[in-house]
Amino acid sequence: MKKILLPIISIIVFFIYIVPTHAENTFKYDWKTNSEYLQADYTMFYNNNTYYQKGYVTSTINLEDQDDNGIPKTYIYRYNIQGEMIKTNIIESKMILSMTSNDKYIIALMRNYLSTEEGYYIALINEELEIIKEYYLPVDDNEEIEYILEEFKLLGIKYINIIDNNAYIFTSDFIKEINLETGSVHNLEQSEDIVKKYYEHIDILDQERTETKTFFGHDKKENKTVLTGMDNQGCIQRPVSSEVGGTLEDSIFARYPIFTDSYITPYVACNPDYKALLKIYDNEDIVLEKTYEEYSVFSTPHIIKDYIVTIATKIDYDTYNFQISVVILDMQGNIIQEISEEEFYLSLVAGPTSFMTLGSNSTTENRCYNEEKEMAYNCFKNNNIVYYLPLSIETKIEGQGTIEVTNTARYEELIKYYPIPEDNYQLETINIIDSQGNEISYNNNSFTMPENDVTIVATFNVENPKTGDISIIATITIMLTTAIILIIKRKREA
Fold it and tell me: How many other β-carbons are positioned within 10 Å of the β-carbon of residue 491?
């Protein structure tokens, strides 16, 4: 496991300045949470987010708000897809380290810092953000959790895996299986078969690894599988050392032959020449494998409709600066958008038509404190930021008329439409169908936007405005005919 993760930890841990770029806005900025202020290490562990029931849930701690035991309180927030906060709660004495969700619960790994209850817990949190079940997670003294979790978070690898009614947690020694109904815990050996069964994405990443290529990003939707990582294309030679300076030929080692290669080698700096790597499968077939010269690493990929969203890192070996942005690619591997308004991006979770990322910026605002209540030197201002993919609304007209409606909309947005028939025409039928062939219900000329593009099909028929006149004429005609017949009959009888 560690052979996959350790080589690139040093790449992603640095927080660097980033210059905003401008690109086609395929994904649109939607909303962001209120600012949170944390130190770098707290930023990594205690900012969490997940997609849950057509919205997002986030958690963080407030270093200024601590309980009587000096433990920062955990704040948890629930937002609908439009960014409206619909629920909040405070958890005392415990900090959320990681979270995920299924249709019913938010599943969180928590750490309790009270001496009487110290340790790790798995919590089930309902839609009201209440902890309804809490299970103690036994961990041996030599068994690492937070170190492994840090690696998973840095690389954007899913940590808590939910299969059926069980949660799975990776530690340094085991895969822990926790039954979400009973709380029973089993330690599973990290054999190849066990990893493949319960952490299939990690097994795939390991199988794809070569001498130069390392994959640590994975996502799968229907028949498409996306892998991201980096390709080590060689060595960028640097000066022997900062103390010696210059090139190897100019150095002291070249002037004094007593220094053999065994002495020289440790002083020759070699920076791996990393290039970002993308690989796409259609079922079992490789449809694309591509490196990107302008980026060093791709991580945390998510397939959203026909796009791939990934966190991209650039490394400048001349200045040792890092630039971290969010990059959007199409399924042919073309870069179509780069989002880089923040200094760096830490995490990325996705819904059916949107994603949330943690944008962070260094700040000198007096809002981060260490244990001695002194200003921390590495204070960061964080916001969970949401971008959405506009969905298209098309109209199909039969007959003479139009439909007034917006061209694009956001998932779960209330859409109003207005049928306008031309003269002597009237609206006969309306059908709203999404791109998957599903019929969308409507009421009072409005519907809720589904997670797919939609087409409004309207039928306008010829109006018959003289129908009433014809009925009158027909009635009169019948009456006259009847009268004439009666008159003729009476004359014959006379």
Answer: 8
Give the C-alpha distances (Å, rounded to integers) separating 11 from 98, 314, 322, 354, 438. 22, 9, 8, 27, 45
pTM of the model: 0.82
Rounded CA gap, 172 and 92, in Å? 28
Nearest to 302 by CA among 232, 185, 233, 387: 387
- What is the residue whose two structure tokens read 């830490």? 346
Separation of first and last alpha carbons in the chain: 117
Q: Is 470 left (phi over 0), alpha (psi -120 to 50) or beta?
A: alpha
DSSP string, 159-210: -SEEETTEEEEE-SSEEEEEETTT--EEEEE--HHHHHHH-HHHHHHHHH--
Task: Spell out the SS3 assignment of 425-442.
Answer: EEEEEEEEEECCCCECCC
The residue behind tokens 């494998």 is 289
Are 334 and 30 in contact by the 8 Å Cβ rule? The answer is: no
Residue 41 CA to residue 169 CA, distance in Å, equals 21
pLDDT for the residue 22: 36
Count CB neighbours of 396 within 10 A: 12
Torsion of CA 25, 28, 33, 34, to 10 degrees: 60
Place 118 in a pLDDT band, splitting at 50, 70 and 90: confident
Q: 3-class SS at 453?
A: coil
pLDDT for residue 479 is more than 90? no
**291 contacts 277 by C-beta, under 8 angstroms:** yes
The neighbouring-strand residues paired with 275 are: 231
- Is residue 417 within 8 Å of residue 427, measured between CB atoms? no
- Helix, strand counts (H, E) of the chain: 9, 33
Contact by Cβ (8 Å): 229, 217:
yes
Helix (H) / strand (E) element for 475: namely: helix 467-493
C-beta of residue 11 within 8 angstroms of C-beta of residue 313: yes
Instruction: State yes or no: pLDDT of 398 exceeds 50.
Output: yes
Instruction: Give the separation between CA 48 and CA 46, rounded to whole angstroms.
Output: 6
Q: Tell me the C-alpha distance between 113 and 194, whole Å.
A: 31
Distance CA 126, CA 428 (A): 45
